[in-house]
Design brief:
alpha/beta, Rossmann fold, 3 domains, four-stranded parallel β-sheet, 13 helices, flat, binds iron/sulfur cluster
Length: about 350
């Protein structure tokens, strides 16, 4: 039977939630839910209360496992944090324990995957990738791909990634590891992750979207995004003053990268000002009139997806190196755009 799009079958692991509360003897918990899971807030809160704790739902935006609200838990005197929707990433020594409940999905993937395999017919070996919600379906995707005549590769877990074949919006360790063995990638999930795979590997990439039951080659869109990035870097070559942003979310906090950025900007004879922000949004940066270009040391997807909205270049640190003539654009693309070792 076809699932209603509004009724995506997440596994909320309510039994495990109760166990965590009881075993931790938690009197108060802070629950973090990404958009998409918030419609289940009442059900989750009720379950936690039944287990004997006071649940508080964190209502600020949350886009990744990197964004754990340790400071909020401290202010609220929460004994532990429950983070829904991502696999394990962060802990804080001396801070409240964090439990990641992955919210796996039990979706019928076959229609989307068969459509994707049609688009992959011209290619030989394929690599597979997905998000934590669908890692349980990757074996079935591999079977379907093999039946369609492809040799199949799935990259080993590494970096921030917990499972073989899993990708995050900023971590493509698994696909980079196998890119040399495959002609193309099949990504089970959303366009957001498929575009990331295409940019990180430079390989033809087809999304199989099980929510909409559609497939799409995202190559053209990935190339369009990279062309926009190149234009931003070119614009920043003329900048006299750079605003270097330190992201305050725990997993995005890279002050050492920001300080390196300040150093290279000043060595090139320009000015640099350090900014710190929890949320990097166009309206919050609009008033910094002295700044010609920003450098975002936090989530790289902000630069990739939202750059046009900022009205000025919003470079990543490796892109800054290109703008200042310390790295070639081709080298950045060959390194998979998301990270340049040693930069
Ligand atoms: S840094 Fe950005 S892409 Fe990476 S996990 Fe956090 S929100 Fe996702």
């Amino acid at each position: 039977m076809r699932e209603d799009k509004d009724e995506i079958p997440y596994d909320l692991e309510l039994g495990r939630l109760k166990e965590i509360v009881k075993e931790g003897k938690a009197k108060r918990i802070l629950v973090q839910l990404p958009f998409g899971l918030r419609k289940h807030a009442l059900e989750i809160a009720r379950t936690a209360e039944e287990a004997g704790t006071l649940p508080i739902i964190h209502a600020d935006p949350c886009h990744g496992a990197c964004d754990i609200p340790f400071w909020a838990a401290e202010i609220l005197n929460a004994d532990l944090i429950i983070h829904y929707g991502h696999s394990e990433m962060l802990s804080m020594p001396g801070g409240p324990p964090v439990y990641y409940l992955e919210a796996r999905m039990n979706l019928d993937i076959e229609e989307a995957v068969r459509k994707a395999l049609k688009l992959l017919e011209p290619y030989g070996p394929v690599g597979l990738a997905t998000t934590v919600q669908h890692v349980g379906s990757l074996g079935r995707v591999a079977e379907l791909a093999r039946s369609a005549g492809h040799e199949v590769f799935i990259g080993k877990a590494g970096g921030w990634v917990k499972y073989d074949g899993q990708v995050l919006g900023c971590d493509f360790t698994t696909v980079r590891a196998i890119a040399g063995h495959v002609d193309a990638f099949l990504v089970l999930g959303s366009k957001f992750h498929a575009i990331g795979v295409a940019i990180a590997t430079g390989k033809p990439t087809v999304m199989a979207n099980p929510y909409e039951r559609v497939a799409e080659d995202v190559g053209r869109e990935a190339r369009r995004i990279l062309a926009r990035r190149y234009a931003s870097v070119e614009e920043a070559r003329e900048a006299r003053c750079f605003g270097i942003i330190i992201g305050l979310k725990p997993g995005q906090f890279k002050p050492q990268v920001a300080l390196r950025a300040v150093k290279v900007v000043r060595e090139s004879g320009r000015e640099a000002i350090l900014l710190a922000a929890n949320e990097i949004r166009p309206e919050y940066l609009a008033d910094f009139g002295d700044v010609d270009a920003f450098v975002n040391t936090a989530c790289p997807r902000l630069s990739l997806e939202d750059a046009g909205a900022f009205g000025r270049p919003l470079l990543t640190y490796p892109e800054l190196l290109v703008a200042l003539g310390k790295l070639r654009w081709e080298e950045l693309c060959e390194a998979g755009w998301f990270g340049v070792p040693g930069s």
